[in-house]
Amino acid sequence: MRAVRTVVGPRTRRDDVSSRIAFQEDELTDPWVALEPGADPAERVRILRRAHETFTEVGTVPRPVRAVVADSWRRSARAGVGPDGTADVELTDGDLGTYRSEHPLARVMPLFRELMGTFAADGEHLLAVCDAHGRLLWVEGHAETRRNAGRMNFVPGARWSENAVGTNAPGTAVALDRPVQVFAAEHFIRRVQPWTCAAAPVHDPRTGRVLGAVDITGGNGLAHPHSLGFVQAVARAAEAHLALLAPARPGADTPRLSVLGRDEARLVTGDRELRLSRRHSEILLLLARHPEGLTGDELLCALYEDESVTPVTLRAELARLRGILGPGLLASRPYRLTVACESDLAVVERRLATGAVTAAATAYAGPPLPGSQAPAVVRLRRRLTEGLRAALIACGDPDLLADWAHAPWGEDDIDVWRALAKARPTAATRTRLASLEAELTTPPGWARP
């Protein structure tokens, strides 16, 4: 962090020396550490509270508020967060359990507990883990501290993203994708200001995608460079552990079908991975959804709009598919799969059915077989897409809405853009929405200026 000096009038040698000293101190200060060694925590809290009041009243951020905190306060205000707000609990009971069990960070929770559990309990701190959208998945540690944190909804299932509750370590860490420490009155919401926390993002080692963050929360004693280094080291250990683990699989012998966002399905069965033609993809998807089987006439109606297509054509396709799949997997009279087949589409449907909208949106890689014109696939695609987008609009989460709106299948979805403009009214969002609404009101055949 470099100092910016403004010269007003002549300067004395003493002024110049003082400026150089201040400049050097700024150069040596780590902007990501909340409290430098030797600083008085009580005095810093008083200064930060005055700065916070100034920002909430007039919108300016005085020094010595760190740049990372000042930027976060501004983002929080733009997102519509109020200083007297509180976190919303979005998942409870079974929904929370289902979502946590399927989350990738569930696989490293034993590691988090081993590395941080004793430290949290003995130091009267909390170990917390959130997902990539700032929703808390686990909050563990000292019992009395956990009860106190519960009064501000720092509990599993609550959303602590920066755009929901303002500046806080887990929410800001996933927003910035880097380790961050937040001390006392640096928190944007007043009821959180008695707390101090440090968090670091955890990434999927294979894709680099942010999976969430690991956080340590407690008193002012955590405002030390060591706590920031500690959570960063724990996050790196979790990533290394995930890299050693095999990808989660529904079962060694369960065929797995991927149809979301791809015109040609991918089938993994045993040690084989098959890429299917579009027609074979359609057949396998429909059979996977109908374990009881489908007759030849039912398959004909499901696959072909053209009523002139004969049963002979369908039988030829099924014979070729049977040869690709190998013996024993595809039976006839009725046509059916001899073993249960898991699909990525079914995963999204299950999550939607339990209300786990974030989990459903995370698993949704695009419309199923988007190029297919098979009547049954078109209906299936429409039902899944409309169900998910309706859930996203009802949820109103700006992160999820933005992910959908900026995806190829959502870039012209005016209803989602309207919901996003309401949840996160940025200039770019308003501009895009205005463009879509102008297109909607332009008569066919007219060219807009």
TrEMBL record:
This is OmpR/PhoB-type domain-containing protein. It comes from the Bacteria. It comes from Streptomyces achromogenes. Residues 271-337 form the OmpR/PhoB-type domain. The keyword Heme does not apply. Gene3D superfamilies: 3.30.450.40. Keywords: DNA-binding.
